[in-house]
Amino acid sequence: MRREKDSLGELDVPDNVLYGIHTCRSMENFDVAGEPVPMEIVYGIVRLKWACARANKSLGMLNDEKTGAIEKACRRILEGGYEDQFPVDVFQAGSGTSSNMNINEVIGNLAVKELGGKPGDRHLLHPNDDVNKGQSTNNIFPSGIRVAAVSMADLLKGSIQGLIDALNSKSEEFKDVIRSGRTHLQDAVPETMGQAFGAWAHALVKDMRRLEAATGRLLEIGAGGNAIGTGVNTKKGFRQLIASELSAITEKEYRVAENGIEITQYLTDMADISSVLRMTAMDINKLCNDLRLLASGPNTGLAEVTLPAVEPGSSIMPGKINPSICEAANMACMQVMGNDQAVQLAAGAGQLELNTHMPVTGYNLVRSFNILIRAARMLADKCISGIQIDEERCAWYFETSGGLGTVLNPKLGYDRVSELVKESLKKNKTAKELVIEKGIMSEEEFDDLVARSTEPNLD
In angstroms, rounded to a whole number, what is the distance separating the alpha carbons of residues 315 and 76? Predict the structure, then answer.
């Protein structure tokens, strides 16, 4: 053990850890979630500490030796292997002070070792005076969440794009398969199965656009604002240097907050991207619901599509196959929607110059990103890519659909078509059979009319 001292007194700290007395006190105080702050946020803050060290060096506030040691410590943490040194529980003081100090201590002690000392040798390099120089948790922690979210947004875009590509591939594969559309779960006008898959894909394209816009707003950071965002105790140009150095480290175009005080007390940009994740989850949820309906049966449901079999569906009914992948994705989407509720509540719960609900905001945001990244990949690889279509079943539904008569409206008028639909249901004949039987249209004319009805008219 080593003995460390702070403003509250002294405490023994294990010799084999890189964190210090502040982290130890936090571990004694906070154990509610049973989970530490996500490493994605830790890494976001570490990147900020690296940028701040460079900025302080440029302003003559930190010498070359200390700056180099801090930079090397940050690189080592980002390379991995130090995850167990960040044990502070998610539910801590609302600004994230415990985590900020935990990170300061770990970076500081790694830097001290680089300088030839031992953990706890604060005379060589101090966690507050050097690693945290010119910084406040109030600005660093939320900026760290932003950095984490921007990085995770790239991963999510790749995952969603993979799902879009899988849907578009099926859209092309099934472009000539005509099926009956349904509204209110009742027969409606025809479309091609390719159009159905194309619509699902385009919904996700719009989600990608929303994600891109929301991510752009997260590139505005308040780091260097200190306490309430006024930049107290920092030199002019410090915030701009942090943004520039962070941009160089991450290869993203970060910028200084338009209003440092506003960005310190409002978490709305985080709520914004969380709502985008919720809407993406809503769209994926709807896609999964549609697939489950279309795959229902096989003998007592719609059975237009066949989903890949990934596991036996029942412990008691032999041969049963369930839409397991879609169900797993459904639950994942529900969790994301629940996470968003926590983020929205936290974002609206600030008081005066600070929102003290940052850790729960970041925690749920990171969870939602990770869930969606994995869920979209699972859905694309284990479900969409292996979907098969029962063309005969689709053709039967199409030919017997009461909605098929709708395409006759321009030629025959609503009232006459209504009578044909009733007669079709009563006599158990298709609309096609009736119009040919009555001499209203030839088979070729009817088929041409139906084919033209599935062509999109977007002019």
Answer: 49
Q: How many CB atoms lie within 10 A of CB 53?
A: 28
Q: 4 forms bridges with which residues in the sheet?
A: 11
Q: Which two tokens stand for residue 223?
A: 């780091």
Task: Enumerate the active-site residues.
Answer: 314
User: Is the separation of the CB atoms in 294 and 200 below 8 Å?
Assistant: no
How do residues 389-415 score in pLDDT, each as one tens digit?
A: 999 999 889 888 877 777 888 888 888
Q: Which two tokens stand for residue 68?
A: 């180099």
- Based on the fold, state whether residues 59 and 185 are members of the same structural domain: no
Distance between CA atoms of residues 247 and 254, nearest Å? 5
Contacts of residue 100, defined as CB under 8 A and 6 or more positions apart, other chains included, come to 45, 132, 135, 137, 140, 141
DSSP string over 77-140: HHHSS-GGG---BSSSSTT-HHHHHHHHHHHHHHHHHHTT--TT-TTT--IIIIITTT--HHHH
Q: Are 227 and 265 in contact (CB under 8 A)?
A: no
Domain range enclosing 417: 401-453
- What are 302-338's pLDDT values in tens digits? 999 999 999 888 788 888 889 999 999 999 999 999 9
Let me know whether 274 and 327 are in one domain: yes
**What is the three-class DSSP state of 29?**
helix
Number of domains in the chain: 3
pTM for this entry: 0.93
The residue type of 321 is: I
Q: Is the peptide bond before 298 cis (omega within 30 degrees of 0)?
A: yes
